[in-house]
Amino acid sequence: MVDHGTPEGLTAENRRLVKEVAQLRAELSALRAEAPSSSVDSATDPTPVTNLTNPEIARYSRHLLMPEIGVTGQLKLRNAAVVVVGAGGLGSPCLLYLAAMGVGRLGVVDHDRVEVSNLQRQVIHTERAGELGVTKAQSARDAVARLNAACRCTAHEIHLNSDNALELLSAYDVVVDATDNAATRYLVNDACVLLDRPLVSASALRLEGQLTVYHHRGGPCYRCLFPEPPPPAAVTNCSEGGVLGVVPGVLGTLQALEVVKVLLDVAPDAPPVLMLFSAFRQPTFRAIRLRGRQPRCAVCGPDATITHLLDYPTLCGQAQHDGPSTLALLPANQRVTCSSYAAAARARVPHLLLDVREPVQFAICHLPGAINVAWSELPGRIDEIPKADPIYVVCRFGNDSQEAVQYLRQAGYSTARDLIGGLHAWSASVDPDFPVY
Ligand SMILES: Nc1ncnc2c1ncn2[C@@H]1O[C@H](COP(=O)(O)OP(=O)(O)OP(=O)(O)O)[C@@H](O)[C@H]1O
Ligand SMILES: [Zn+2]
């Protein structure tokens, strides 16, 4: 019996084979080093599947019939690992299509929980009993399992940050950014450049969407296009600005398409583009051709200064304007709680209630007797505000109302005060029947 444990124990034929394998390994690593960064080898599966099973042939027959996909293409999907960061409006359709099309391994990263206001667009989550309130990552993983049990889907129920991103993302071949904030966008971009992973990135807001594949085939990264984060005040998200349900549906579906194109290496010579979508305009789609990698890019340029992940929330000045207020711009004597205001209103103490939300929001719900002048219009319409005593100013979360009180006081309205926490606090502390949006 031949001892395979030591080279000394090998037969001449075995020694020849060992040498050949070593040679092939060396050739493979040389080819990998030469290959452009676009070529995607599975980062995680050392033993790729080489044949489809009969159930797989039946399941993916409509793919297999197409020469553009065929068995080779289907096997590439089967052997790929794709991670989707964000299981919201974009991530939902993207994950569903990737699972349905037969991507072998998926990861879904999201720290948030499913809320009823998500269901208008985040179609991977449902109103089924028990589903509201679970983490989006878990809900998405369960939906993937229902759709395609053969797809191995890992739920990462965490907030992706500088401490965990490199390790987490390195386990996947392609990264999909389906999130909604600048800090995560820069984080994911930098991590993809450092890990040399293609990044399929999209955004959707109101009626508009954008999509690009970054750091792919020598193309630009997100920082090449947007070297500096935008000022926080210029950033709006869906909970502030709204979004038509189907808009992230279109963009997230296109992200799944771009993942397939990356995995199958479709149109390798196509230049990088920024795809723009506008739901109510003609043409609905436009593509802007992008320049290549920028030599001065801080993360992907030849003199890159970013060699490790940074503190992205601080860099992006991520002030939360879209959630319950923690901002305290005003001194305590210029603020009242919702309960004190409720008591004064019940006692019919004369006052003026000024609601500074946009008119579309005022139309959703408002407190009795409120007048509406949006914060954005206040400077131009200040003459419409009577000099009442006192003036209470309210908004949705209690942020804009504080800025409006500051402005009013500077304009001579010395009795203006803000309702702490806005209408969200009203609903939580005074009237649970008051609608929350
Ligand atoms: N750093 C991050 N790590 C993990 N998940 C993230 C990160 N940043 C954003 N997300 C997730 O990305 C998703 C973005 O989706 P989307 O904007 O449709 O949802 P949303 O935040 O629930 O919406 P809304 O603004 O209406 O509350 C969210 O589920 C959010 O939790
Ligand atoms: Zn770059």
UniProtKB/TrEMBL annotation:
<keyword id="KW-0479">Metal-binding</keyword>
<keyword id="KW-0963">Cytoplasm</keyword>
<dbReference type="GO" id="GO:0042292">
    <property type="term" value="F:URM1 activating enzyme activity"/>
</dbReference>
<feature type="binding site">
    <location>
        <position position="89"/>
    </location>
    <ligand>
        <name>ATP</name>
    </ligand>
</feature>
<dbReference type="Pfam" id="PF00899">
    <property type="entry name" value="ThiF"/>
</dbReference>
<dbReference type="GO" id="GO:0002143">
    <property type="term" value="P:tRNA wobble position uridine thiolation"/>
</dbReference>
<protein>
    <recommendedName>
        <fullName>Needs CLA4 to survive protein 3</fullName>
    </recommendedName>
</protein>
<feature type="active site" description="Cysteine persulfide intermediate; for sulfurtransferase activity">
    <location>
        <position position="395"/>
    </location>
</feature>
<keyword id="KW-0547">Nucleotide-binding</keyword>
<dbReference type="GO" id="GO:0005829">
    <property type="term" value="C:cytosol"/>
</dbReference>
<comment type="similarity">
    <text>In the N-terminal section; belongs to the HesA/MoeB/ThiF family. UBA4 subfamily.</text>
</comment>
<keyword id="KW-0808">Transferase</keyword>
<feature type="binding site">
    <location>
        <position position="224"/>
    </location>
    <ligand>
        <name>Zn(2+)</name>
    </ligand>
</feature>
<dbReference type="GO" id="GO:0046872">
    <property type="term" value="F:metal ion binding"/>
</dbReference>
<feature type="binding site">
    <location>
        <position position="300"/>
    </location>
    <ligand>
        <name>Zn(2+)</name>
    </ligand>
</feature>
<comment type="pathway">
    <text>tRNA modification; 5-methoxycarbonylmethyl-2-thiouridine-tRNA biosynthesis.</text>
</comment>
<keyword id="KW-0833">Ubl conjugation pathway</keyword>
<feature type="binding site">
    <location>
        <begin position="180"/>
        <end position="181"/>
    </location>
    <ligand>
        <name>ATP</name>
    </ligand>
</feature>
<dbReference type="GO" id="GO:0004792">
    <property type="term" value="F:thiosulfate-cyanide sulfurtransferase activity"/>
</dbReference>
<feature type="binding site">
    <location>
        <position position="297"/>
    </location>
    <ligand>
        <name>Zn(2+)</name>
    </ligand>
</feature>
<dbReference type="InterPro" id="IPR035985">
    <property type="entry name" value="Ubiquitin-activating_enz"/>
</dbReference>
<feature type="binding site">
    <location>
        <begin position="117"/>
        <end position="121"/>
    </location>
    <ligand>
        <name>ATP</name>
    </ligand>
</feature>
<feature type="binding site">
    <location>
        <position position="136"/>
    </location>
    <ligand>
        <name>ATP</name>
    </ligand>
</feature>
<dbReference type="GO" id="GO:0005524">
    <property type="term" value="F:ATP binding"/>
</dbReference>
<dbReference type="InterPro" id="IPR001763">
    <property type="entry name" value="Rhodanese-like_dom"/>
</dbReference>
<keyword id="KW-0862">Zinc</keyword>
<dbReference type="InterPro" id="IPR036873">
    <property type="entry name" value="Rhodanese-like_dom_sf"/>
</dbReference>
<feature type="active site" description="Glycyl thioester intermediate; for adenylyltransferase activity">
    <location>
        <position position="238"/>
    </location>
</feature>
<dbReference type="InterPro" id="IPR028885">
    <property type="entry name" value="MOCS3/Uba4"/>
</dbReference>
<feature type="binding site">
    <location>
        <position position="221"/>
    </location>
    <ligand>
        <name>Zn(2+)</name>
    </ligand>
</feature>
<feature type="binding site">
    <location>
        <position position="110"/>
    </location>
    <ligand>
        <name>ATP</name>
    </ligand>
</feature>
<dbReference type="GO" id="GO:0032447">
    <property type="term" value="P:protein urmylation"/>
</dbReference>
<feature type="domain" description="Rhodanese">
    <location>
        <begin position="347"/>
        <end position="435"/>
    </location>
</feature>
<dbReference type="Pfam" id="PF00581">
    <property type="entry name" value="Rhodanese"/>
</dbReference>
<dbReference type="GO" id="GO:0070566">
    <property type="term" value="F:adenylyltransferase activity"/>
</dbReference>
<keyword id="KW-0511">Multifunctional enzyme</keyword>
<dbReference type="InterPro" id="IPR045886">
    <property type="entry name" value="ThiF/MoeB/HesA"/>
</dbReference>
<dbReference type="InterPro" id="IPR000594">
    <property type="entry name" value="ThiF_NAD_FAD-bd"/>
</dbReference>
<keyword id="KW-0067">ATP-binding</keyword>
<keyword id="KW-0819">tRNA processing</keyword>
